[in-house]
Design a protein that fits this description.
Helix content is 15%, strand content 51%. With 172 residues, it is mainly beta. InterPro entries: LPS_export_LptA, LptA, OstA-like_N.
Length: 172
């Protein structure tokens, strides 16, 4: 039983490691393109809101949402932008440095550029190839490369691991 538990922990660790590099290094240097049916700007509060059929692209990243709110901090505050996306669901796709795609979805996605912290809330899912993690809330600390998944009361976090894909990722 201890051997089986060790294999499950190892397999889970490999899946989380495979999700740990959510960005191609070149993606963050690419221009950000945002297309939507509507856009509004609140200059006093430094908020830009995009609504209806929002599509954001940056390098290999593609985000689709029904609403995206970008809040810019005051100048000289040393804070960075905060991006909130809403949808039913918000979806995103990205190709990692190793060429493998990562797909995700949730009812709400928040990315704080200052803390480099990503939060997926409401029917959250991260998927790479056929392996995936589902939960009520999935958080990813980009700087620390730490992923956590939680479920609401009465629900459970679900992880699906495909051994053949894990073995290929491990070079076996």
């Amino acid at each position: 039983m201890k051997l089986i538990s060790s294999k499950i922990v190892l397999a889970s660790t490999l899946v989380f490691m495979s999700f740990s590099a959510l960005a191609l290094k070149e993606d963050t240097n690419q221009p950000i393109n945002i297309v939507s049916d509507n856009q509004s700007l609140d200059m006093n509060n430094r908020v830009v809101t995009f609504t209806d059929n929002v599509v954001i692209t940056q390098g290999s990243i593609i985000v689709k949402a029904s609403k995206v709110v970008i809040t810019r901090p005051e100048e000289n505050s040393k804070q960075k932008d905060k991006v909130e996306a809403f949808g039913n669901p918000v979806t995103f796709h990205q190709v990692m440095d190793d060429g493998k795609p990562v797909d995700g979805k949730a009812n709400k996605v928040v990315y704080d550029l200052g803390t480099e912290f990503l939060t997926l809330t409401g029917d959250a899912e991260l998927k790479q190839l056929d392996s995936k993690i589902n939960g009520s809330v999935i958080t990813y600390d980009v700087a620390k490369q730490q992923l956590k998944a939680n479920a609401n009361s009465g629900a459970r976090v679900k992880t699906v691991l495909i051994p053949t894909q894990l073995n290929r990722a491990n070079g076996k």
